[in-house]
Sequence to fold (481 residues):
Amino acid sequence: MGACPADMPTPLAAVILAAGQGTRMKSDRPKVLHEVAGIPLVGHPIRLALGLGADSTVVVVGHKADDVKAALDARFPAQLRYEIQSQQLGTGHAVQEGMKSLPTFEGRVLILYGDVPLLREETVKQLITTMDEGRHALVAVTMVLDDPTGYGRIVRDAAGKVQGVVEHKDATPAQREIKEGNAGIYLVDSTFLRSALAKLDNKNAQGEYYLTDIVAAAAKDSRGASTVIVSDPVEVMGANDRTQLAELAEALRKRTNRRHMIEGVTIVDPATTAIGPDVTIGRDTIIEAGVHLRGKTKIGSGVTIDAYTIITDCTVADRAQIKSHSVLDEASVGPGAIIGPFARLRPGAEVMDDAHVGNFVELKKTKLGKGSKANHLAYLGDSIIGEGANVGAGTITCNYDGYGKYLTVIGDGVFVGSNSTLVAPIEIGKNAYVAAGSVLTEKVGAEGLAFGRARQVEKPGRATPLREEAKAKAAELKKRK
Fold:
Protein backbone atom coordinates (compact mmCIF):
# COMPACT_ATOMS: atom_id res chain seq x y z
CA MET A 1 0.00 0.00 0.00
CA GLY A 2 1.27 3.47 -0.84
CA ALA A 3 3.02 5.52 1.82
CA CYS A 4 0.78 7.72 3.94
CA PRO A 5 1.63 9.75 7.05
CA ALA A 6 0.43 8.03 10.21
CA ASP A 7 -1.91 10.86 11.19
CA MET A 8 -3.62 11.07 7.80
CA PRO A 9 -6.37 8.80 6.44
CA THR A 10 -5.53 6.60 3.49
CA PRO A 11 -6.71 8.30 0.26
CA LEU A 12 -9.87 6.94 -1.35
CA ALA A 13 -10.89 6.92 -5.00
CA ALA A 14 -14.04 5.51 -6.57
CA VAL A 15 -14.59 3.85 -9.94
CA ILE A 16 -18.26 3.61 -10.89
CA LEU A 17 -19.26 1.32 -13.74
CA ALA A 18 -22.03 2.88 -15.85
CA ALA A 19 -21.35 1.84 -19.43
CA GLY A 20 -24.09 -0.71 -20.04
CA GLN A 21 -27.12 -0.24 -22.25
CA GLY A 22 -29.69 -1.94 -20.03
CA THR A 23 -31.71 -3.53 -22.83
CA ARG A 24 -34.26 -5.00 -20.40
CA MET A 25 -35.36 -1.47 -19.52
CA LYS A 26 -36.75 -1.25 -23.06
CA SER A 27 -35.94 2.44 -23.15
CA ASP A 28 -34.23 5.00 -25.35
CA ARG A 29 -32.73 6.44 -22.16
CA PRO A 30 -29.54 4.87 -20.76
CA LYS A 31 -30.39 2.61 -17.83
CA VAL A 32 -28.24 4.55 -15.37
CA LEU A 33 -30.26 7.72 -16.02
CA HIS A 34 -33.56 6.19 -14.94
CA GLU A 35 -34.43 7.74 -11.60
CA VAL A 36 -34.94 6.48 -8.07
CA ALA A 37 -36.19 9.08 -5.57
CA GLY A 38 -35.70 11.84 -8.13
CA ILE A 39 -32.02 11.02 -8.72
CA PRO A 40 -30.57 9.02 -11.64
CA LEU A 41 -29.54 5.51 -10.67
CA VAL A 42 -25.88 6.34 -11.17
CA GLY A 43 -26.28 9.49 -9.09
CA HIS A 44 -26.72 7.42 -5.93
CA PRO A 45 -23.28 5.74 -5.94
CA ILE A 46 -21.76 9.07 -7.00
CA ARG A 47 -23.36 10.78 -3.99
CA LEU A 48 -22.04 7.98 -1.81
CA ALA A 49 -18.48 8.36 -3.09
CA LEU A 50 -18.51 12.14 -2.78
CA GLY A 51 -20.05 11.90 0.69
CA LEU A 52 -17.20 9.63 1.76
CA GLY A 53 -14.73 12.27 0.62
CA ALA A 54 -13.30 10.39 -2.34
CA ASP A 55 -10.28 12.21 -3.75
CA SER A 56 -11.31 11.18 -7.27
CA THR A 57 -14.58 9.79 -8.58
CA VAL A 58 -14.33 8.16 -12.01
CA VAL A 59 -17.43 7.18 -13.96
CA VAL A 60 -16.93 4.62 -16.73
CA VAL A 61 -19.45 5.39 -19.47
CA GLY A 62 -20.26 3.71 -22.77
CA HIS A 63 -23.80 3.54 -24.13
CA LYS A 64 -24.94 7.09 -24.98
CA ALA A 65 -21.92 8.39 -23.12
CA ASP A 66 -22.56 12.02 -24.05
CA ASP A 67 -26.08 11.89 -22.61
CA VAL A 68 -24.84 10.36 -19.37
CA LYS A 69 -22.00 12.87 -19.02
CA ALA A 70 -24.29 15.83 -19.70
CA ALA A 71 -26.81 14.68 -17.09
CA LEU A 72 -24.13 14.08 -14.48
CA ASP A 73 -22.23 17.30 -15.14
CA ALA A 74 -25.47 19.22 -14.59
CA ARG A 75 -25.97 17.53 -11.21
CA PHE A 76 -22.32 17.22 -10.11
CA PRO A 77 -20.49 20.08 -11.86
CA ALA A 78 -16.69 19.71 -12.03
CA GLN A 79 -16.70 16.82 -9.53
CA LEU A 80 -16.29 13.79 -11.81
CA ARG A 81 -13.84 12.22 -14.20
CA TYR A 82 -14.92 10.04 -17.12
CA GLU A 83 -13.48 7.13 -19.04
CA ILE A 84 -15.07 5.52 -22.10
CA GLN A 85 -15.64 1.78 -22.41
CA SER A 86 -16.30 1.70 -26.12
CA GLN A 87 -16.57 -2.12 -26.22
CA GLN A 88 -18.46 -4.06 -23.57
CA LEU A 89 -15.75 -6.59 -22.70
CA GLY A 90 -16.76 -7.30 -19.10
CA THR A 91 -16.51 -5.69 -15.69
CA GLY A 92 -12.79 -6.32 -15.44
CA HIS A 93 -12.25 -4.43 -18.67
CA ALA A 94 -14.49 -1.60 -17.42
CA VAL A 95 -12.34 -1.18 -14.29
CA GLN A 96 -9.20 -1.27 -16.45
CA GLU A 97 -10.63 1.66 -18.39
CA GLY A 98 -11.59 3.49 -15.21
CA MET A 99 -8.12 3.17 -13.72
CA LYS A 100 -6.73 5.15 -16.67
CA SER A 101 -7.91 8.23 -14.78
CA LEU A 102 -5.91 7.17 -11.73
CA PRO A 103 -2.43 6.42 -13.14
CA THR A 104 -0.51 7.53 -10.05
CA PHE A 105 -3.16 7.20 -7.36
CA GLU A 106 -2.00 5.46 -4.20
CA GLY A 107 -4.61 4.38 -1.70
CA ARG A 108 -7.88 2.49 -1.82
CA VAL A 109 -10.18 2.13 -4.78
CA LEU A 110 -13.89 1.63 -4.20
CA ILE A 111 -15.55 -0.17 -7.12
CA LEU A 112 -19.28 0.57 -7.45
CA TYR A 113 -22.05 0.02 -10.00
CA GLY A 114 -24.20 2.65 -11.64
CA ASP A 115 -27.39 0.62 -11.26
CA VAL A 116 -27.01 -0.20 -7.53
CA PRO A 117 -28.50 2.79 -5.69
CA LEU A 118 -29.05 1.57 -2.12
CA LEU A 119 -25.54 0.84 -0.84
CA ARG A 120 -25.16 2.58 2.52
CA GLU A 121 -22.26 4.69 3.73
CA GLU A 122 -22.12 2.50 6.84
CA THR A 123 -21.37 -0.54 4.70
CA VAL A 124 -18.46 1.17 2.95
CA LYS A 125 -17.10 2.26 6.33
CA GLN A 126 -17.25 -1.40 7.37
CA LEU A 127 -15.20 -2.24 4.30
CA ILE A 128 -12.61 0.33 5.32
CA THR A 129 -12.50 -0.92 8.91
CA THR A 130 -12.16 -4.54 7.76
CA MET A 131 -9.32 -3.60 5.43
CA ASP A 132 -7.57 -1.62 8.18
CA GLU A 133 -7.88 -4.34 10.79
CA GLY A 134 -6.78 -7.18 8.51
CA ARG A 135 -4.47 -5.18 6.22
CA HIS A 136 -6.14 -6.99 3.33
CA ALA A 137 -5.51 -6.42 -0.37
CA LEU A 138 -9.25 -6.61 -1.09
CA VAL A 139 -12.53 -6.61 0.81
CA ALA A 140 -15.73 -7.63 -1.00
CA VAL A 141 -19.38 -7.00 -0.18
CA THR A 142 -21.41 -10.20 0.00
CA MET A 143 -24.91 -11.28 1.00
CA VAL A 144 -26.50 -14.49 2.24
CA LEU A 145 -29.49 -15.54 0.14
CA ASP A 146 -31.98 -18.37 0.46
CA ASP A 147 -31.76 -18.73 -3.32
CA PRO A 148 -28.52 -17.26 -4.74
CA THR A 149 -29.20 -18.53 -8.25
CA GLY A 150 -27.43 -16.34 -10.78
CA TYR A 151 -24.92 -14.93 -8.31
CA GLY A 152 -21.26 -15.84 -8.04
CA ARG A 153 -20.53 -17.85 -4.87
CA ILE A 154 -17.88 -16.96 -2.32
CA VAL A 155 -15.61 -19.99 -1.99
CA ARG A 156 -13.80 -20.39 1.33
CA ASP A 157 -11.28 -22.91 2.66
CA ALA A 158 -11.78 -25.09 5.72
CA ALA A 159 -10.63 -22.24 7.96
CA GLY A 160 -13.19 -19.86 6.44
CA LYS A 161 -10.70 -17.77 4.48
CA VAL A 162 -11.84 -16.42 1.13
CA GLN A 163 -10.39 -18.34 -1.81
CA GLY A 164 -12.23 -16.76 -4.70
CA VAL A 165 -15.53 -16.37 -6.54
CA VAL A 166 -17.07 -19.00 -8.79
CA GLU A 167 -19.80 -17.91 -11.18
CA HIS A 168 -23.12 -19.74 -10.95
CA LYS A 169 -22.85 -21.26 -14.43
CA ASP A 170 -19.37 -22.58 -13.62
CA ALA A 171 -20.15 -23.83 -10.11
CA THR A 172 -20.22 -27.50 -9.17
CA PRO A 173 -23.38 -28.88 -7.52
CA ALA A 174 -21.67 -28.57 -4.14
CA GLN A 175 -20.66 -24.97 -4.80
CA ARG A 176 -24.20 -24.11 -5.84
CA GLU A 177 -25.29 -25.04 -2.33
CA ILE A 178 -23.25 -22.09 -0.99
CA LYS A 179 -25.63 -19.34 0.18
CA GLU A 180 -23.10 -16.49 0.29
CA GLY A 181 -23.31 -14.56 -2.96
CA ASN A 182 -20.95 -11.98 -4.39
CA ALA A 183 -22.34 -8.45 -4.77
CA GLY A 184 -19.43 -7.37 -7.00
CA ILE A 185 -18.64 -4.31 -4.87
CA TYR A 186 -15.02 -4.12 -3.74
CA LEU A 187 -12.59 -1.99 -1.78
CA VAL A 188 -9.14 -2.70 -3.20
CA ASP A 189 -5.62 -1.51 -2.55
CA SER A 190 -4.59 0.44 -5.64
CA THR A 191 -1.17 -1.20 -6.07
CA PHE A 192 -2.64 -4.67 -5.89
CA LEU A 193 -5.54 -3.67 -8.18
CA ARG A 194 -3.24 -2.50 -10.98
CA SER A 195 -1.27 -5.73 -10.77
CA ALA A 196 -4.39 -7.93 -10.72
CA LEU A 197 -6.06 -6.09 -13.60
CA ALA A 198 -2.95 -6.47 -15.73
CA LYS A 199 -3.16 -10.25 -15.32
CA LEU A 200 -6.82 -10.65 -16.32
CA ASP A 201 -7.58 -12.62 -19.45
CA ASN A 202 -10.72 -13.34 -21.43
CA LYS A 203 -10.23 -17.05 -21.96
CA ASN A 204 -13.78 -17.99 -21.10
CA ALA A 205 -17.05 -18.77 -22.82
CA GLN A 206 -18.12 -15.13 -22.76
CA GLY A 207 -14.83 -13.77 -24.05
CA GLU A 208 -14.91 -11.18 -21.27
CA TYR A 209 -12.53 -9.95 -18.60
CA TYR A 210 -14.12 -10.92 -15.28
CA LEU A 211 -13.55 -8.60 -12.35
CA THR A 212 -14.33 -11.49 -10.02
CA ASP A 213 -10.93 -12.99 -10.92
CA ILE A 214 -9.23 -10.36 -8.76
CA VAL A 215 -10.76 -11.97 -5.63
CA ALA A 216 -8.83 -15.19 -6.18
CA ALA A 217 -5.72 -13.13 -6.92
CA ALA A 218 -6.16 -11.28 -3.62
CA ALA A 219 -6.58 -14.58 -1.78
CA LYS A 220 -3.17 -15.65 -3.08
CA ASP A 221 -1.61 -12.33 -2.08
CA SER A 222 0.15 -12.27 1.28
CA ARG A 223 -2.48 -9.84 2.61
CA GLY A 224 -5.43 -11.97 1.52
CA ALA A 225 -9.06 -11.09 0.90
CA SER A 226 -12.01 -10.63 3.22
CA THR A 227 -15.73 -9.81 3.06
CA VAL A 228 -18.43 -7.69 4.65
CA ILE A 229 -21.83 -9.40 4.64
CA VAL A 230 -24.77 -6.99 4.35
CA SER A 231 -27.73 -7.74 6.60
CA ASP A 232 -30.29 -6.74 3.97
CA PRO A 233 -29.57 -8.03 0.44
CA VAL A 234 -31.74 -5.25 -1.05
CA GLU A 235 -28.86 -2.89 -0.27
CA VAL A 236 -26.78 -4.38 -3.09
CA MET A 237 -29.51 -5.19 -5.59
CA GLY A 238 -29.40 -3.67 -9.07
CA ALA A 239 -32.14 -2.58 -11.44
CA ASN A 240 -32.36 -4.54 -14.67
CA ASP A 241 -35.94 -3.66 -15.62
CA ARG A 242 -38.74 -1.28 -14.64
CA THR A 243 -40.14 -3.70 -12.07
CA GLN A 244 -36.85 -3.86 -10.20
CA LEU A 245 -36.52 -0.09 -10.53
CA ALA A 246 -39.86 0.33 -8.74
CA GLU A 247 -38.86 -2.19 -6.07
CA LEU A 248 -35.65 -0.29 -5.35
CA ALA A 249 -37.55 3.00 -5.22
CA GLU A 250 -39.95 1.51 -2.68
CA ALA A 251 -37.09 0.19 -0.57
CA LEU A 252 -35.34 3.56 -0.56
CA ARG A 253 -38.61 5.35 0.27
CA LYS A 254 -39.17 3.06 3.26
CA ARG A 255 -35.59 3.52 4.46
CA THR A 256 -35.77 7.30 4.16
CA ASN A 257 -39.17 7.60 5.83
CA ARG A 258 -38.07 5.37 8.68
CA ARG A 259 -34.99 7.53 9.28
CA HIS A 260 -37.07 10.70 9.52
CA MET A 261 -39.63 9.09 11.82
CA ILE A 262 -36.88 7.87 14.15
CA GLU A 263 -35.56 11.44 14.21
CA GLY A 264 -38.91 12.83 15.40
CA VAL A 265 -41.00 13.47 12.28
CA THR A 266 -44.61 12.25 12.12
CA ILE A 267 -45.42 10.66 8.76
CA VAL A 268 -49.11 9.81 8.80
CA ASP A 269 -49.08 7.44 5.83
CA PRO A 270 -45.52 6.30 4.99
CA ALA A 271 -46.79 4.13 2.13
CA THR A 272 -47.82 7.21 0.12
CA THR A 273 -45.14 9.66 1.26
CA ALA A 274 -42.01 10.16 -0.87
CA ILE A 275 -39.05 12.05 0.57
CA GLY A 276 -35.87 12.60 -1.41
CA PRO A 277 -32.50 11.57 0.06
CA ASP A 278 -31.26 15.18 0.28
CA VAL A 279 -34.32 16.52 2.13
CA THR A 280 -33.92 17.64 5.75
CA ILE A 281 -36.84 17.84 8.20
CA GLY A 282 -37.01 19.23 11.75
CA ARG A 283 -38.56 17.42 14.66
CA ASP A 284 -42.29 17.56 15.42
CA THR A 285 -43.15 18.23 11.80
CA ILE A 286 -46.31 16.43 10.65
CA ILE A 287 -46.55 15.11 7.09
CA GLU A 288 -49.92 13.92 5.84
CA ALA A 289 -50.66 11.31 3.14
CA GLY A 290 -49.50 11.69 -0.45
CA VAL A 291 -46.84 14.34 0.21
CA HIS A 292 -43.74 14.48 -2.02
CA LEU A 293 -40.64 16.33 -0.78
CA ARG A 294 -38.00 16.61 -3.49
CA GLY A 295 -34.54 17.92 -4.25
CA LYS A 296 -32.69 19.84 -1.54
CA THR A 297 -35.81 20.89 0.36
CA LYS A 298 -35.31 21.97 3.97
CA ILE A 299 -38.28 21.73 6.33
CA GLY A 300 -38.10 23.29 9.79
CA SER A 301 -39.52 22.11 13.10
CA GLY A 302 -43.20 22.04 13.96
CA VAL A 303 -44.28 22.38 10.33
CA THR A 304 -47.56 20.91 9.11
CA ILE A 305 -47.71 19.67 5.52
CA ASP A 306 -51.18 18.59 4.48
CA ALA A 307 -52.12 15.87 2.02
CA TYR A 308 -51.03 15.73 -1.63
CA THR A 309 -48.59 18.61 -1.45
CA ILE A 310 -45.44 18.65 -3.63
CA ILE A 311 -42.42 20.66 -2.48
CA THR A 312 -39.23 20.85 -4.54
CA ASP A 313 -35.97 22.62 -3.64
CA CYS A 314 -37.66 24.86 -1.07
CA THR A 315 -37.00 26.16 2.43
CA VAL A 316 -39.93 26.01 4.84
CA ALA A 317 -39.29 27.58 8.24
CA ASP A 318 -40.52 26.53 11.68
CA ARG A 319 -44.26 26.42 12.43
CA ALA A 320 -45.32 27.06 8.83
CA GLN A 321 -48.46 25.39 7.55
CA ILE A 322 -48.62 24.05 4.01
CA LYS A 323 -52.21 23.12 3.30
CA SER A 324 -53.37 20.39 0.96
CA HIS A 325 -52.72 20.18 -2.79
CA SER A 326 -50.19 23.01 -2.82
CA VAL A 327 -47.17 22.98 -5.16
CA LEU A 328 -43.97 24.78 -4.18
CA ASP A 329 -40.86 25.06 -6.38
CA GLU A 330 -37.60 26.84 -5.45
CA ALA A 331 -39.43 29.05 -2.96
CA SER A 332 -39.00 30.02 0.69
CA VAL A 333 -41.65 30.13 3.40
CA GLY A 334 -41.09 32.02 6.62
CA PRO A 335 -41.90 31.06 10.21
CA GLY A 336 -45.61 30.72 10.93
CA ALA A 337 -46.66 31.40 7.35
CA ILE A 338 -49.71 29.66 5.90
CA ILE A 339 -49.76 28.39 2.31
CA GLY A 340 -52.79 26.97 0.52
CA PRO A 341 -54.83 24.95 0.00
CA PHE A 342 -54.29 24.72 -3.76
CA ALA A 343 -51.58 27.40 -3.75
CA ARG A 344 -48.63 27.54 -6.11
CA LEU A 345 -45.27 29.07 -5.26
CA ARG A 346 -43.01 29.27 -8.30
CA PRO A 347 -39.26 29.91 -8.35
CA GLY A 348 -38.22 33.06 -6.53
CA ALA A 349 -41.30 33.28 -4.33
CA GLU A 350 -40.57 34.46 -0.77
CA VAL A 351 -43.33 34.32 1.82
CA MET A 352 -42.23 36.08 4.99
CA ASP A 353 -43.13 35.46 8.64
CA ASP A 354 -46.83 34.89 9.38
CA ALA A 355 -47.91 35.81 5.83
CA HIS A 356 -50.83 33.99 4.19
CA VAL A 357 -51.08 32.67 0.63
CA GLY A 358 -54.53 31.19 0.11
CA ASN A 359 -56.41 28.95 -2.26
CA PHE A 360 -55.61 29.26 -5.97
CA VAL A 361 -53.05 32.00 -5.39
CA GLU A 362 -49.87 31.90 -7.48
CA LEU A 363 -46.62 33.69 -6.64
CA LYS A 364 -43.65 33.94 -8.99
CA LYS A 365 -40.47 35.83 -8.13
CA THR A 366 -42.47 37.74 -5.52
CA LYS A 367 -41.73 38.69 -1.93
CA LEU A 368 -44.83 38.74 0.28
CA GLY A 369 -43.99 40.72 3.41
CA LYS A 370 -44.42 39.82 7.06
CA GLY A 371 -48.06 39.38 8.01
CA SER A 372 -49.35 40.19 4.53
CA LYS A 373 -52.20 38.24 2.95
CA ALA A 374 -53.24 37.11 -0.50
CA ASN A 375 -55.98 34.67 0.37
CA HIS A 376 -57.95 34.03 -2.81
CA LEU A 377 -57.51 33.59 -6.57
CA ALA A 378 -54.62 35.98 -7.22
CA TYR A 379 -51.55 36.04 -9.45
CA LEU A 380 -48.59 38.01 -8.12
CA GLY A 381 -45.52 37.94 -10.33
CA ASP A 382 -42.30 40.00 -10.19
CA SER A 383 -43.53 41.86 -7.13
CA ILE A 384 -42.34 43.23 -3.82
CA ILE A 385 -45.15 43.43 -1.28
CA GLY A 386 -44.54 45.08 2.07
CA GLU A 387 -45.65 44.14 5.57
CA GLY A 388 -49.27 43.97 6.65
CA ALA A 389 -50.67 44.34 3.14
CA ASN A 390 -53.90 42.71 1.92
CA VAL A 391 -54.35 41.63 -1.68
CA GLY A 392 -57.96 40.91 -2.61
CA ALA A 393 -59.43 38.04 -4.57
CA GLY A 394 -58.90 38.08 -8.33
CA THR A 395 -56.03 40.57 -8.22
CA ILE A 396 -53.23 40.19 -10.76
CA THR A 397 -49.97 41.95 -11.45
CA CYS A 398 -49.52 42.39 -15.20
CA ASN A 399 -45.78 41.84 -15.19
CA TYR A 400 -45.20 40.84 -18.85
CA ASP A 401 -45.90 42.84 -21.99
CA GLY A 402 -44.83 40.13 -24.42
CA TYR A 403 -41.20 41.26 -24.44
CA GLY A 404 -40.03 42.08 -20.92
CA LYS A 405 -40.85 41.51 -17.23
CA TYR A 406 -41.58 44.51 -15.01
CA LEU A 407 -41.77 45.09 -11.27
CA THR A 408 -44.76 45.86 -9.07
CA VAL A 409 -44.05 47.40 -5.65
CA ILE A 410 -46.79 47.41 -3.02
CA GLY A 411 -45.97 49.21 0.21
CA ASP A 412 -46.62 48.34 3.85
CA GLY A 413 -50.24 48.31 4.92
CA VAL A 414 -51.70 48.62 1.41
CA PHE A 415 -55.21 47.31 0.79
CA VAL A 416 -55.83 46.11 -2.75
CA GLY A 417 -59.51 45.51 -3.46
CA SER A 418 -60.81 42.43 -5.22
CA ASN A 419 -60.49 41.99 -8.98
CA SER A 420 -57.83 44.68 -9.36
CA THR A 421 -55.32 44.72 -12.22
CA LEU A 422 -51.94 46.33 -11.53
CA VAL A 423 -50.06 47.03 -14.76
CA ALA A 424 -46.30 46.98 -14.16
CA PRO A 425 -44.07 48.83 -13.74
CA ILE A 426 -46.08 50.38 -10.94
CA GLU A 427 -45.72 51.38 -7.30
CA ILE A 428 -48.47 51.54 -4.69
CA GLY A 429 -47.39 53.70 -1.74
CA LYS A 430 -47.53 52.85 1.95
CA ASN A 431 -51.05 52.52 3.45
CA ALA A 432 -52.71 53.29 0.11
CA TYR A 433 -56.14 51.89 -0.73
CA VAL A 434 -56.99 50.48 -4.17
CA ALA A 435 -60.71 50.27 -4.88
CA ALA A 436 -62.09 46.92 -6.05
CA GLY A 437 -62.21 46.35 -9.78
CA SER A 438 -59.54 48.94 -10.56
CA VAL A 439 -57.11 48.84 -13.44
CA LEU A 440 -54.07 50.91 -12.42
CA THR A 441 -51.24 52.00 -14.66
CA GLU A 442 -49.73 54.86 -12.68
CA LYS A 443 -48.05 55.30 -9.32
CA VAL A 444 -50.26 55.66 -6.24
CA GLY A 445 -48.86 57.78 -3.40
CA ALA A 446 -48.76 56.88 0.26
CA GLU A 447 -52.18 57.07 1.96
CA GLY A 448 -53.79 57.56 -1.47
CA LEU A 449 -57.18 56.19 -2.52
CA ALA A 450 -57.00 54.97 -6.12
CA PHE A 451 -59.88 54.24 -8.51
CA GLY A 452 -59.24 52.88 -11.96
CA ARG A 453 -62.62 51.77 -13.26
CA ALA A 454 -65.50 53.03 -15.43
CA ARG A 455 -68.18 55.18 -13.79
CA GLN A 456 -71.35 53.31 -12.75
CA VAL A 457 -74.46 54.33 -14.77
CA GLU A 458 -78.08 53.50 -13.86
CA LYS A 459 -81.13 53.84 -16.19
CA PRO A 460 -84.26 53.60 -14.02
CA GLY A 461 -86.97 51.19 -15.19
CA ARG A 462 -84.97 49.98 -18.18
CA ALA A 463 -84.55 46.35 -16.94
CA THR A 464 -88.05 45.09 -17.87
CA PRO A 465 -88.04 46.45 -21.46
CA LEU A 466 -84.56 44.98 -21.92
CA ARG A 467 -85.80 41.53 -20.88
CA GLU A 468 -88.78 41.80 -23.29
CA GLU A 469 -86.52 42.77 -26.14
CA ALA A 470 -84.27 39.79 -25.42
CA LYS A 471 -87.23 37.38 -25.31
CA ALA A 472 -88.58 38.68 -28.62
CA LYS A 473 -85.20 38.31 -30.30
CA ALA A 474 -84.86 34.72 -29.03
CA ALA A 475 -88.36 33.83 -30.26
CA GLU A 476 -87.62 35.22 -33.73
CA LEU A 477 -84.43 33.15 -33.94
CA LYS A 478 -86.36 30.03 -32.92
CA LYS A 479 -88.93 30.59 -35.72
CA ARG A 480 -86.19 30.88 -38.34
CA LYS A 481 -84.80 27.49 -37.32
Summary: The radius of gyration is 32 Å. The CA atoms of residues 140 and 248 lie 22 Å apart. The domain at 254-450 is CATH 2.160.10.10 (UDP N-Acetylglucosamine Acyltransferase; domain 1).
